[in-house]
């Protein structure tokens, strides 16, 4: 009688397999251990601490001796705040306009930089300057450009007779948000352009040659060749833009501080002011957790959409 030896092979327990894998790859684990420890200390611990604070009493202006648990009281306080839904609305406008504008402007720039022309290498090097500059330096430059009396933007508009009197770009509620979004778009679109340019250069020329032989126009080549081939990198770029914009803080805060009259108070500034202006650190932690949940939701949605797009293609 012939028996299958594999049938009677002793089963190795889960922990023993993991221990063998650990011993086999101990050198690799040794090299990544500093990174794991750093991430846990710098990222995971603050998140855990903020999550814990969001369920505790942390109103520094009225200390009660200790930080007892208050359940969902901090979250209720955030939602009942007079400016909670206002800041969400401002954040929604800021998110939609800047993400779409940066993507479209970056796509157009990538298509231009993908063409052969004199000085293309120099143009590719110069386009990265806005993205490479720090947010504070960028904001200070635009503060000078937006200046009511001496700003170059007012000077140009008045020279072209588009306006009769200077505009207070950062001092008027209906202009401040648009001014902040313009700075965000100017600083962010080079990243999109470089990412999409890399995607364009990976598209085989054979596809365009086949489309030309079939009589496809430039527009149809763009719709049926370029955009489908750019779908994976486009989803990644769109995801990054959404997540980065949700957590945007320094740019708007340096430009306007959330003003005037909270006209530019996006949600991250609302959370900051809850903690450092009103000393409600429990509510600020709760707001931070809400912002984290929004970021995770958008991450999940776009990752699912990316996988669906890859399976469809």
Q: Average pLDDT across residues?
A: 86
The CATH class label of the largest domain is: Mainly Alpha
Q: Total strand count, please? A: 0
Number of domains: 2
Q: What share of residues is helical?
A: over 70%
% residues in beta strands = under 5%
Overall morphology: flat
In brief, what are we looking at here?
The protein has 14 helices and no strands. It is mainly alpha-helical.
Tell me about this structure.
The protein is mostly helical and 313 residues long. It folds into two domains: 12-53, no CATH class; 73-312, Orthogonal Bundle (MetI-like fold), CATH 1.10.3720.10. The chain is built from 14 helices and no strands. The protein has helices at 14-24, 26-53, 73-80, 84-113, 120-126, 129-132, 135-145, 152-159, 173-201, 205-213, 218-246, 250-256, 267-276, 281-312. Helix 4 packs antiparallel against helix 11 (218-246), helix 7 (135-145) packs parallel to helix 12 (250-256) and helix 9 (173-201) crosses helix 11 (218-246). The longest helix is centred in the last third of the chain and has 32 residues, at 281-312.
